[in-house]
Structure to design on (252 residues):
């Protein structure tokens, strides 16, 4: 059962739920959407304290936010999370699904338990959240899922992760067509190498430098770069639908 914490939320014009909102990209997305005028629900799976701290920072700056918990792959948890957002703010306009797990290993060596864990969060989790979003997002809203640019670059050791994110792209593009007539856009953002704990974990300085040099801009992306793309899809980009937007600095 989800729990939410809030600083006396009131009904706002537009409302966003950000899954994985206590993570690096998720936090940047939540903060950007608040700056865009949204009331935001910051979702967490296991780190309630971090989500509460983000909410406290947002509300201290005059924004509206609550924290909601739950397993993205559990339909009951997510139904309760959406209920909490609707109770606090009156509805849901944008759902951004940043929650994800990445374990890297050659296909021949990957522990199948890690495969199952990635697919539970990345595939089933995206499906469950997208299903709730399809039922609840109000007209004029947007659903933004997360893929990866590695679906195109095909880097070794990313096989299982890419398999899960290719499934996310399939879910996203089909859902966009299924929501015909509802005035709801459905897109995916595919980040390139971005300086988050998820990306940096297990990489030495030389590997990180090589990733930075791989883009024509010769730097790693920052969470705020990805948040810019989400802001575009969540707000003015009403004619972009059923697409995968590669936010990767020109990575080939």
């Amino acid at each position: 059962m989800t729990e939410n914490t809030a600083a006396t939320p009131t009904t706002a014009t537009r409302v966003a739920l950000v899954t994985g909102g206590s993570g690096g990209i998720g936090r940047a997305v939540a903060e950007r959407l608040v700056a865009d005028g949204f009331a935001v629900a910051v979702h967490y799976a296991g780190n309630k304290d971090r989500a509460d701290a983000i909410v406290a920072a947002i509300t201290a700056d005059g924004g509206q936010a609550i924290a909601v918990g739950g397993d993205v792959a559990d339909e009951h948890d997510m139904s309760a999370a959406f209920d909490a957002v609707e109770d606090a703010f009156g509805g849901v306009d944008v759902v951004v699904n940043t929650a994800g797990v990445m374990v890297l290993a050659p296909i021949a060596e990957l522990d199948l338990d890690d495969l199952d864990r990635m697919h539970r969060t990345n595939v089933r989790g995206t499906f469950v959240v997208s299903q709730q979003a399809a039922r609840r997002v109000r007209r004029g809203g947007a659903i933004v899922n997360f893929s990866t640019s590695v679906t195109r670059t095909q880097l070794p050791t990313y096989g299982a992760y890419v398999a899960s994110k290719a499934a996310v792209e399939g879910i996203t593009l089909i859902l966009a067509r299924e929501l015909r007539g509802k005035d709801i856009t459905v897109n995916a953002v595919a980040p390139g190498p971005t300086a988050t704990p998820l990306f940096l974990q297990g990489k030495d300085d030389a590997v990180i430098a090589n990733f930075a040099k791989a883009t024509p801009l010769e730097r790693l992306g920052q969470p705020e770069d990805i948040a810019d793309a989400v802001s575009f899809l969540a707000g003015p980009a009403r004619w972009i639908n059923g697409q995968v937007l590669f936010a990767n600095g020109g990575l080939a």
